[in-house]
């Protein structure tokens, strides 16, 4: 049955580029079956789930034992946020920003999408700065003089 299904429905690995986040819940399920989780940021979030959602999460964790409940939540939230961003309505403004192939005007988007994208970029920069500050500093090679001073400490003169 699985071989037959693959012939008609391409797998997540066949339909996406490497390291691309899943876009739909169907692709997310395929990803859980076939791939390892991507690395995450140092930031954590605590949530209290309603009983039904907690039971569903426990069921998914049992169905996909290679995934921790936190990983499942992270990936589900990622898929939901992508769908949310895609569902935001385009609202045509008054300013023409370009023209399409037929020469028709394309108006600026004055809906929620541009603000959401700008705020997302700003928060990403903040999170990257926090992650960078939390990361251990790279080891640098000491100068020849510093290495020599470290090997033979100066002796203090006797009085």
Characterise this structure.
- This protein has 159 residues and is mainly alpha-helical.
- The chain has 2 domains: 1-87, no CATH class; 89-98 and 106-130.
- The protein is 53% helix and 8% strand.
- It is built from 7 helices and 2 strands.
- It has helices at 2-8, 12-15, 25-34, 51-63, 69-87, 112-134, 144-151; strands spanning 92-99, 105-109.
- The protein is flat and about 90 Å long.
- The model is unreliable at 1-19 (pLDDT under 50).
Question: How are the SSEs placed, and which strands pair?
Answer:
Layout: H1 2-8, H2 12-15, H3 25-34, H4 51-63, H5 69-87, E1 92-99, E2 105-109, H6 112-134, H7 144-151
Antiparallel strand pairs: 1-2
Helical proportion, percent range = 40-55%
- As residue ranges, the low-confidence spans are 1-19
Radius of gyration using CA atoms only: 26 Å
Strand order of the largest sheet: 1-2
| End-to-end gap | 90 Å
Helix-strand topology string = HHHHHEEHH
Number of domains: 2
Class inferred from helices and paired strands: mainly alpha
Number of helices: 7
Largest sheet: 2 strands, antiparallel
- Per the principal axes of the C-alpha atoms, what is the gross shape? flat
Strand content: 5-15%
Average pLDDT across residues? 78
Number of strands: 2
Oligomeric status of the shown chains? Answer: single chain
């Amino acid at each position: 049955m699985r071989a037959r299904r693959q012939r008609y429905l391409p797998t997540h690995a066949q339909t996406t580029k490497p390291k691309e986040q899943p876009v739909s819940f169907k692709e997310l399920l395929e990803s859980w079956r076939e791939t390892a989780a991507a690395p995450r940021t140092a930031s954590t979030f605590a949530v209290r789930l309603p009983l039904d959602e907690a039971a569903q999460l426990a069921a998914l964790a049992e169905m996909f034992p290679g995934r921790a409940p936190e990983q499942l939540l992270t990936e589900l939230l990622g898929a939901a946020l992508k769908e949310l961003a895609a569902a935001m309505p385009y609202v045509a403004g008054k300013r023409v920003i370009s023209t399409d192939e037929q020469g028709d005007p394309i108006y600026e988007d004055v809906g929620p999408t541009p603000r959401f994208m700008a705020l997302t970029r700003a928060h990403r920069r903040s999170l990257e700065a926090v992650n960078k500050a939390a990361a251990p500093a790279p080891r640098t090679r000491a100068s020849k003089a510093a290495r020599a001073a470290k090997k033979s400490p100066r002796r203090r003169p006797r009085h």
